[in-house]
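Our consortium's second objective concerns turning raw sequence data into structural hypotheses that experimental partners can test. To show how far this objective has progressed, the report includes one record in full. It was chosen at random from the queue rather than selected for favorable results. The single chain below, 360 residues long, was entered without modification.
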Amino acid sequence: MNMATYFLKLRSNVVLSGDVKLAERDAKSLFATVLIVEHPEDVQTAIGLPLHYVALNCRVEPPIGFLAHTTVHSLQNLVLYLNFIQEIWTEKGNVNVENFGNWCHIVQDSGKEFICALPVIACGELLSQSAISSPKPADVSMLTAFLSGDDSIRRSSIKAPTSGGTSTPHVHALHKYKAKFFPRLIRSLLVTQLDSLPKNALGKITLLDPFAGSGTALIEAALLGIDAVGVDIDKLSCAITQAKIDALTIGAEEVTQAVNNVGKLLTEHLPEQSCYKFPRKISQKFERWGTPEEQQFYEATITKWKNSIEHLPHETTRRLLGICLSDALTRKFVIRMLGTGVGRFRKHRLTPCSWRISRR
């Protein structure tokens, strides 16, 4: 049992009162006592953290966070579980940060040492909106230092959390999918029920999602170390989910190598394993517009990409890049079903040229 007091700073992109309530519920499931913080001075009084650290990148409107006291969870678990929180602050002597790596930053002020720890979900969101194209472990350390007020970090690469955010961090953003689950909501439901969920003889929890969709619940379960099984009648949904799960474990170097290999294969003359053809409902649109050559160009381009990906030697990278191609096509060709009648589809051609497809 850790009797320390923590300041849990709310994510600055939390704007809905319902999200604040979820954040409070998360905190209450992890700490014995949780108090809402309306003013930065309350934090300074409680734990001695100077005002400029409390107010830095905090919400414009109160509440700005919570003062939480007494927990059975380690700082490592708090970093994993708290998903509406931007920063976790406490005095350095209250926690064991040995082997904690990039996820915390130590600041010294007024004769005291404080720890600023970065929750995983906030890290994913902030790095997703940063100017860093391929984040590395060192970038997590840089982000943590930036949030804790290190003036040496350049703002050109790390954006202030108040500049906006995303509700689909890391692999959740892979492939366009309508009406997907809000990842924070799923994580909140899981975290608050961890102690009450049934466990097997080995003490493990297994999650079943009978309508897996784009895999949000399965991904959040995996990130929390929970075994999960998903079922869906839609083959594309299953493929998207599998690709996201693959993306959690595949090495960045392996993905980079696969992308480079596809780039090389695009310049070679490959035997066509299959020739892509638009579904009849879409090809009829080209016929109506009198642009069969445009249809042929798109089909040839898609075929080239599809065959190049299928020539990759490893199944995992084939699946992952295949879903990336599907994502690009979904964003290029917007198909909308009107009403409930069968066959009532409309296709829109977006303004970016076809070559933009190949660059995504």
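The partners drew two points from this record. The chain is about 45% helix and 15% strand. The two ends are 49 Å apart (CA to CA). Both points have been shared with the crystallography group to help prioritize constructs.
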